[in-house]
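Per-record layout

source: Pseudomonas mohnii
name: Acyl-CoA dehydrogenase
length: 399
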Amino acid sequence: MHFTLDQEDERFRQEVRAFLKAKLPQDLAERNRRGYHPLREDTRQWTKILHAQGWSGANWPTSWGGTGWSPVRQFIFEEESILAGAPAVDTAGFKMIGPVIMTFANETMKAQYGPRILSGDVFWGQGFSEPNAGSDLGSLTTRAERDGDEYVINGQKIWTSFVETADMIFILAKTDPQARQRGISMILVDRQAPGVTIRPIYDIGESHSLNEVFFDDVRVPVSNLVGEEGMGWTYAKFLLENERAFSAEWPRNNAHLARLRTLLNTPQHDGRRLIDRPGFASRLAQLNTDLLALRWLSLRALHEKAGGQVRLPVGSLLKIRGSELLQKIGELQVEALGSHASYVYPDPLGDAQRQRTWPPGPNTAPGIMADYFYRRATTIYGGANEVQRTIIARSFLEL
Ligand SMILES: Cc1cc2nc3c(=O)[nH]c(=O)nc-3n(C[C@H](O)[C@H](O)[C@H](O)COP(=O)(O)OP(=O)(O)OC[C@H]3O[C@@H](n4cnc5c(N)ncnc54)[C@H](O)[C@@H]3O)c2cc1C
């Protein structure tokens, strides 16, 4: 196990930096550095710039039209991109449904969606969770009944992120209500299909990325079934493992800590800096140490993955450590803001329906409270941390 990157990887890092410097539009970067949800148009624009470079499918093999980069290079790319303020490509497309389609779907479906995901021409929502089925996803009740060459879908999903601007939704639905997991199938639904209703949920940070989705007699062609009927649970497990993918939170933690450092080093109205106070300095040092430990854990996992020797549920380990650290960094950012943290500075571009105005405040304030509130969810989404702890315990006890 090496804790340093080899020279070729460092050269690759310089190449990525030069690319970001030349090609990343600064208005997109500014918005993302503040931690607001990326606008769909920004994501599309950036995906197309990456696609022109052949870099949009950073985590995809060359046989799917991706870069074929090693896990370590994907890590470096993500690290540099987030630090520079680049919006992430559509996670639901590139990291969730894309790999499922390219691994399990028929050739027609692969040809229909693979290239359009890579070019940023189709965006996705993940319709798994329901009001009574979150951690216990197997108890979902959305139904897909076969009627000739179509499925008729009825039911409700909740917490469906960014679906309001997606083109397609991949859902889990029961095609056989008698069987439990064997009765679940994965089906692609056009967001604009008749019978699909999307209702926004505004979060405590006053932003809109979450939704309820209702399906009332929605008809979709049978050709929208992914892989085989009744195999949706197997595909979902594959997808969720990718969702907690290696190193997912390190690059974001790194960018947030960099922002915290800037906050602490910026002179306040009295000319003093918070970093000169021992309380802030020691807590920053502790967070920095935790971040380095997370980096090494991530790199170790990547090396093991590359060598095909993964023994521990590292996805679950990284998810717990990364999500908790994001919240701790957020807490110190909020403390550093002092009284300016009493206002949330909601995203001025986030929802055209709602007028946003900011009261006067330091340039460092906007974005911090909104992001802090949103990051309370990091220990819940992608599989709640309590459930990840059970997965780790089971693997050690070999249950
Ligand atoms: C910001 C955000 C974005 C999301 N985006 C999406 C999305 O795009 N698509 C989608 O399908 N879903 C999405 N989700 C839903 C997310 O996957 C669920 O919230 C999550 O799986 C937990 O399910 P739940 O909310 O029903 O909570 P529950 O499962 O009811 O859990 C409630 C509490 O009980 C604990 N608990 C439950 N079961 C166990 C157990 N077996 N052992 C120990 N503790 C347990 C949990 O840890 C939690 O603390 C999102 C959620 C959030 C917060």
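summary: The chain has three domains: 7-89, 124-230, 244-397. The first strand starts at residue 124 and ends at 127.
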